[in-house]
Please model this.
Amino acid sequence: MRLLFVCLGNICRSPAAEVVARKLLPECDIDSAGTGHWHVGEVPYEPMQNAARARGYDMSGLRARQVVPKDFDRFDLIIAMDTRNLEDIAALRPKGNATPVKLFTDYAPETGRDHIPDPYYTRDFDGALTLIENAAKGLAQTIGQQR
Ligand code: 4NP
Model:
């Protein structure tokens, strides 16, 4: 299964989701992208990398890219970090394409959260990682049940 995680900048939440999901779903093809163009080509934001490294995740090899309409054909499931991402992604959907686009927090109903708050603004990188780990576990269970 091919999974694409999407946030705004592709330097905090979605690259963190990418490395967490890679560990839980080694058989999946996993990538991440941002709806915005500002950070294309950059490594993940250093405070996010540091928080991830403290939990055993290496984000240093990732580089930011922008989501493109072709991603709808390249992936089986697109996962957004918040509703703004969801709407911006939906606007890129090619005619006739039916690839599902889901909110990541839908996979972690026990958290009671409806989005992953952006740590670039909240500065709570560790809290974002906790939510991402919970949602990734739920996602892995859902995918496992489908198999
Ligand atoms: P992300 O966080 O969407 O989790 O990567 C952001 C990083 C940078 C910006 C916005 C969000 N920015 O506007 O530069």
